[in-house]
Amino acid sequence: xxxxxxxxxxxxxxxxxxxxxxxxxxxxxxxxxxxxxxxxxxxxxxxxxxxxxxxxxxxxxxxxxxxxxxxxxxxxxxxxxxxxxxxxxxxxxxxxxxxxxxxxxxxxxxxxxxxxxxxxxxxxxxxxxxxxxxxxxxxxxxxxxxxxxxxxxxxxxxxxxxxxxxxxxxxxxxxxxxxxxxxxxxxxxxxxxxxxxxxxxxxxxxxxxxxxxxxxxxxxxxxxxxxxxxxxxxxxxxxxxxxxxxxxxxxxxxxxxxxxxxxxxxxxxxxxxxxxxxxxxxxxxxxxxxxxxxxxxxxxxxxxxxxxxxxxxxxxxxxxxxxxxxxxxxxxxxxxxxxxxxxxxxxxxxxxxxxxxxxxxxxxxxxxxxxxxxxxxxxxxxxxxxxxxxxxxxxxxxxxxxxxxxxxxxxxxxxxxxxxxxxxxxxxxxxxxxxxxxxxxxxxxxxxxxxxxxxxxxxxxxxxxxxxxxxxxxxxxxxxxxxxxxxxxxxxxxxxxxxxxxxxxxxxxxxxxxxxxxxxxxxxxxxxxxxxxxxxxxxxxxxxxxxxxxxxxxxxxxxxxxxxxxxxxxxxxxxxxxxxxxxxxxxxxxxxxxxxxxxxxxxxxxxxxxxxxxxxxxxxxxxxxxxxxxxxxxxxxxxxxxxxxxxxxxxxxxxxxxxxxxxxxxxxxxxxxxxxxxxxxxxxxxxxxxxxxxxxxxxxxxxxxxxxxxxxxxxxxxxxxxxxxxxxxxxxxxxxxxxxxxxx
Length: 744
Prior knowledge:
By secondary structure, the protein is an alpha+beta fold. Helix 5 runs antiparallel to helix 6 and helix 11 (394-405) crosses helix 12 (407-414). It has 20 helices and 19 strands. The chain is 51% helix and 14% strand. The protein is globular. The chain has a nine-stranded mixed beta sheet with strand order 11-15-12-16-10-9-18-8-19. Strands 1-7-2-3-6-4-5 form a seven-stranded mixed beta sheet.
């Protein structure tokens, strides 16, 4: 206890520099703890979403006793969101259970809406067709997964849902039918967040715990020479680091509480939650208040070991030992694992993510990232020693000799900026089908001009006479020009505009017995009357290859729009749109369709709206992780650069007094940071692309090897170098204070 109190007295009585260092450690630790609390709370937020969804699920039975309340649940896509409506026909029995968020069940003609559905109905009255009845109130938070959910309880008559309704037994299940994130996907999400946030966070907290290591080590060495024991010396050092970490943890938890309140009001793209969902749990508080001081104590103990064991060498500034090589072993092991998985991409049987691979591949990526950080001091030392021996430049010589003597000090500045890995998704195009009869000509034009829509066409099937006893040829047709068809498929050859032509897709079957010369009849509505249009299957053929899935897949006939009478519409036809497969573009197109025809039923071909929502949530969480990783890396650089400026004032002053110009010193400081940073960034880019390829190969994706994103990453790396150059400029002050040398 005496050593601990001595450490506190030295902390607050050792001058302004020690107090500034303490504040830097606490401020940096608070930012790290805030990010840690957010990462630990994300699964809690998702569990709260799923818990409320599970609690409102209707328990029903197919057997319908007389007088029982009937329920019918419908979930339809409205734009890129799911719109859930629960139709309720109250029975004659009393005491029916009420779902969470409501005080009573709706009666016939009554509607209870979520706040988001209420706003939608106000802004777009056409949605009234989905919600027959008058609005009676809002659904409480207990009955909604999140504040932006589209949900409604619609009261109706028993006869309206008598065919499909089920007898209500109660509300609530132990699981959510559509979780916010699938459990298997949540495992990968935790791994990704661990890679993006927790690894840089651990390094950042370690950096904060080792600020001004040289000054502290000299002070600890003095105490050791005065007779303090080795353990006592380590306790003195732990007093400062643990108190700073504990104060930083308390500040970080307070910052998270404020951040949670702000984010619940503003929200994130595709992810909203209530304040109670993100409230700090006991386990999160325990991890932050216990784990962070423990990490600081461990780092402080390791950093004080040299001063306690070799106090004379520390006081006399003896040359430090060569950096350890075991970090390079981790890097080589990690890169070997990642490169091995990349090599399987060249074989006929690439690796998958099943079984042991699900553990080994992520472990290889983590070992690569950790080994990269731990190997940077060794690389910096080796490069600095070689360059310093051969260069004739004063600037390079001073910079490299400093990096050779203190390779770890520069690493504390640049480590946080070399840990970001970016990946890119790839998939085929997406199609959307709407009933043609539900669209006006003006709506069709608006849909075709929506941002993101690449092409459009009409699909229909030939008509079969139900009273005919003979076999009738049947086929499906696409009404489009050659240009429209080309935008809907991968490739097509042999198309001639203005002619009815056969379509030949080697991956799809043909119509029922439809051969060249056979008549195909289509039901056409023209001028309010139903007529029949007969087309004969021609001999001219178009070879085409469609995406999978596709709205025109398996079509047998291309019909030009000019072959139809003016104003005529094929019976049962569908209007098909196509867009890119990027998730943001799919959501934009779906939202655009909802804006043009709010009540039309949209079939997103090959798109699961629930899956799309999950992907949006995952993208948001990963984006949050990347932003936090960037914030942590930037904070590590700012804190370390500020601390380094304070720690090096005496050395800079000494070199200035013997004649070095300020311009030379600034160049030296810049080179000291830029050289190891550039090495780290190049290694990070190479390791990141290898890790991306290994992830894509084991995930079974179509895209495995490409250079997409490399120019952006290269520009980002150049930007990081530019920021680091700007950050080194304040390290050389304008005022020279010889007193700093005397104090040293």
